[in-house]
Amino acid sequence: MKRTGVARKSRVQKSEEIREALFQAAAEVVGECGYAEASISRITQRADLAQGTFYNYFTSRQEIFDELLPVLGAKMMAHIRQQANGAVGYREKEERSFRAFFSFLKRMPYFLRILNEAEFFAPVAHRQHFHNISSGYTRFMKKARAAGEITAVSDEEIEALVYMLIAARGYLALRYMKPDGSVELPEEAVTAYMRLLSHGLVSPQGGDVPVDPSQEREPR
What we know:
Distance between the termini: 101 Å
CATH superfamily of the domain at 62-199: Tetracycline Repressor, domain 2
CATH topology of the domain at 62-199: Tetracycline Repressor, domain 2
Largest sheet: none
Order of helices and strands: HHHHHHHHH
């Protein structure tokens, strides 16, 4: 029996490749046209597959929409972990992770539209994505707290902080998005973000002791 030197792909491998091709095509089509115009025919044409092939993997257009954002979110988190690998301490890990989010957007400029429209067109995916992202971020923050790298905030405060930091990334991406959908984050934004994390906003001269409203006097 002659060997060709080229290993034949298994049925599972082929199936995984086709599924990945459909997700990639769906991401590109939604990124360009939005969920409303992302038809099955457009997705399969972009993937260079027969339309009937789609139904071997998904029962409907909505089903692929409900999986699309979590799949892309997993790729984003993998990219961030890779970029943050080797960083020492919370500050360096946070800065690398922050930069990695925006470098991911360069690779997948369609991600923001998929994310922002998902709240209305794929709410199941939207909720799952934020659960995945916030859970991972919360674990990261709790490890930093245990190591004494951040202040001893409560679990409830960590949850609030996680959503604040996620929101910062999202709104900065919208602020610096170009007409073609790409995002170019200026270095000043990174500096401001890291300064806020490292030192906060209120200066020692500004007073950081909360005032009891009942003790305040009306001006005369």
